[in-house]
Amino acid sequence: MADYENFETTFEDGVLRAEMHSTSKMNGFNAVMGDELLDIAIRLHEEPVRCFVLTGSDGVFSAGGDVGEFLTGSSPSAFRRGASILHDAMVQFHQAAVPIVTGVNGLAVGAGFSLAIFGDYVLVSEDAYFEFGYPNLGASSDGGSTFYLPRLVGLREAKRIALLNERIDPEEAVDIGLASEAVPAGEFDDRLTEVAQKVAEGPTLALGRTQRLLTESTTSTIEQQLARETETFARTARSEDFAEGVTAFVERREPEFEGR
User: Has this prediction a pTM greater than 0.85?
Assistant: First the structure.
């Protein structure tokens, strides 16, 4: 396993789990963390990952960018580099045919907000909360939040969240579509493991590609979306899991997918 300064990773039964242990306070997102997140994202393309899980540690998901770094010599070019590396990581995650689960175990603000909401399945602890956060620093957003947020909650609601910058509790997050499920803090770890294992047992390519189709659908015409569906279905039909799924259906048994 790779050795990171800001993440602890495990890879077991097809589940690659990355737990943020930032060297910055409150799991703040620092420059090294961006490089490490990009490395983790690339692993989804190179290793037999069947589900990726991103979560925080010690009751904190991420409080966003490390403001201390902003005050100690950061320049416009440094900000551009940092955002570019983070965004390269987000593109790699988006392009990987791997389902992504984010486990929001505590506050998710700023860049932490962006990282929290990009999962295909977002599990949130009842002790956690979301906050757009960027207006607190007089900053515009990064990390893909302006891509994912209107797709999740609608344009009008996305603008309300960004303008008012209010805390969003777990129940509201589920109600508006920001999160998939909220659970008591004492049940969070078990439920996160359960969701990840269930996803990892499925047909990885089909699930990952379907999530990407759904995400991209909001900016597609019907013709474009159907063309993408045709191409994706044809590629996925060449997978070993498709053959297994069809065979198992005919034989009236549960399929045993391998993620290939």
Answer: yes
